[in-house]
Design brief:
Blueprint (H helix, E strand, L loop, with lengths): L2 E10 L10 H10 L4 E7 L3 H4 L4 E3 L2 E9 L8 E4 L11 H10 L3 E4 L27 E6 H8 L6 H9 L10 H11 L5 E5 L6 E4 L2 E4 L3 H4 L3 E8 L16 H13 L3 E5 L9 E5 L5 E2 L15 E17 L2 E15 L3 E9 L2 E6 L2 E3 L8
The protein binds zinc ion (2 copies).
One zinc ion binds next to loops.
Length: 369
C-alpha cells in the first residue's frame, strides 16, 4: 500500500456558530495555505453539512463535524463522521457513547485549557477524566496555546506584536496533558490531533476592535499531517470533486485521525510537510505512527525508530512518556530493544515544532513507571 501524506487544519468555526468566517472565505484561505483538507466543527451545529459544503473545493477536502459541549459549556468534544447532533448535554460519557454508537469518531477538545488573559474568553477545559470510549485527544489547541503564552496585553507595543505575529507566540502542549495522554497510551491506543479552534473573532481592547488571528494566519499554525492510502486520495490540486469519491476520502481522513497515523506540527516553526517519522523492524517492515492494524504481523526486534525531518531540530525519543534519547539534527535513527509506547517530539527555537503519534511496540498494557 502506497501512503500519501495529507496536511490540514482541524477544528475551525464558521458563521454557523461563533466564527467570523463563512465557508467561501475559509475554503479560499485553505487553498491559499496549500492545505489538503480542513475539518469544520461548529458548536452543536452541522449546518455546513446540511448546506452541502462538504466535499472537494479546488483540491481541498472539506469535512464537516461538530463540537459538542455540556450544559455548563465545559467538556468540549469534536465529533466526526456523524450525520446528526447527538442528544444530551448533561453527561459527557453519554454523548461520547451516543456519538460512538452513531458510527462517529470523537476527540476531547482543548482538555487542559487554562487561559485567563481575556475576560470574555474563559477557559473551557475537560473536567470529566473518568470517561471512557473516546478515540483521541486534541492535544495541541492553537488558540489555547496563544492565550496561555501571550503574557499581559496591557503594554500596547507588546500587544501589537502579539496580534501582528500571533503564530510566533505559540509554544507547546501543556506538560500535564502530555503526561495524561502518555499514561492512557500505556493501557490503550489514544490518538492525538492538533486543533486550530479558528474563530477569526473580533475582540475589543478598550476603544479598539481587532481580529486575533485572521483566518490566513490561523491556517499557518497548528496542522495535522496524516498518512492515507494513496488510492483513497486520488485528487489533483485543481479538482472540485467531479467523479471523485469524496465520501471515501472523508472516511480515509476520519480513519487516519482516529488511528493517529501521523504527526502534529506548528507551521510557523517550519513547514513539516515531507517529514518522515517511521519505524523499521528486523524484517524490514516499515510503519508510520499510529494504532497497529489488527491483521498486522507482530514486530520483530531490533527495531529502529527514525525521524527524517525537513529542518534541523532538537529531536527527542520518548518511551512510555519518558525521554530516552535526544539529538540536535535533521535526522535520527534509534534502535530500541524492548516493548513500550514510543513517540517523537521535535523542537525549534523557543518551542515545539512536531509531536508524533505513538508507536506501540509489543502488547498492552505497558509499564507506566
Ligand atoms: Zn471548544
Ligand atoms: Zn472550538
Amino acid at each position: 500500500m502506497a501512503l500519501k501524506e495529507i496536511c490540514g487544519c482541524i477544528h475551525l468555526h464558521t458563521i454557523f456558530s461563533d466564527g467570523g468566517c463563512d465557508y467561501d472565505t475559509l475554503v479560499d484561505a485553505a487553498k491559499g495555505a496549500g492545505l489538503d483538507y480542513i475539518c469544520v466543527t461548529d458548536h452543536m451545529s452541522l449546518k455546513g453539512r446540511y448546506d452541502g459544503r462538504e466535499g472537494l473545493h479546488g483540491g481541498v477536502l472539506v469535512l464537516v463535524g461538530y463540537e459538542h459541549e455540556d450544559d455548563k459549556k465545559l467538556n468540549h468534544y469534536l465529533a466526526f463522521g456523524v450525520s446528526e447532533i447527538a442528544e444530551g448535554q448533561n453527561d459527557p460519557q453519554d454523548y461520547i457513547n451516543r456519538i460512538s454508537r452513531m458510527g462517529g469518531t470523537g476527540f476531547l477538545a482543548h482538555p487542559a485549557e487554562n487561559r485567563d488573559v481575556i475576560k470574555s474568553l474563559p477557559p473551557y477545559p475537560w473536567t470529566r477524566w473518568d470517561v471512557t470510549g473516546f478515540d483521541g485527544i486534541e492535544i495541541w489547541n492553537q488558540i489555547s496555546d496563544w492565550m496561555e503564552h501571550v503574557g499581559s496585553l496591557r503594554n500596547p507595543l507588546r500587544l501589537l506584536l502579539r496580534l501582528h505575529f500571533p503564530n510566533r507566540f505559540l509554544r507547546n502542549v501543556p506538560k500535564e496533558l502530555l503526561k495524561k495522554w502518555d499514561d492512557m497510551n500505556c493501557s490503550r491506543f489514544v490518538s492525538a490531533i492538533g486543533g486550530v479552534d479558528a474563530h477569526s473573532r473580533k475582540i475589543s481592547f478598550g476603544p479598539f476592535n481587532c481580529v486575533i488571528f485572521p483566518i490566513e494566519e490561523e491556517l499557518r499554525g497548528i496542522r495535522t499531517h496524516l498518512f492515507v492510502d494513496e488510492a483513497d486520495w486520488a485528487v489533483n490540486k485543481d479538482e472540485d470533486g467531479g467523479g471523485v469519491d469524496t465520501a471515501g476520502m472523508n472516511r480515509a481522513l476520519i480513519d487516519a485521525m482516529r488511528d493517529g497515523r501521523g504527526f502534529i506540527s506548528n507551521f510557523s516553526r517550519g513547514d513539516a510537510r515531507g517529514c518522515k517519522i517511521f519505524l523499521r523492524d528486523n524484517s524490514g517492515a516499515i510503519r508510520c505512527p499510529g494504532r497497529p492494524a489488527d491483521a498486522q504481523q507482530p514486530l520483530s526486534f531490533p527495531i529502529t525508530i527514525n525521524a527524517e525531518l525537513t529542518k534541523k531540530a532538537k529531536i527527542k525519543l520518548l518511551r512510555n512518556g519518558k525521554v530516552i534519547k535526544t539529538t540536535s539534527s535533521k535526522t535520527a535513527a534509534w534502535q530500541v530493544t524492548e516493548p513500550g509506547v514510543y513517540r517523537i517530539e521535535a523542537y525549534r527555537g523557543s518551542g515545539a515544532w512536531i509531536y508524533s503519534n505513538p508507536f506501540p511496540v509489543g502488547q498492552y498494557p505497558y509499564s507506566t513507571t
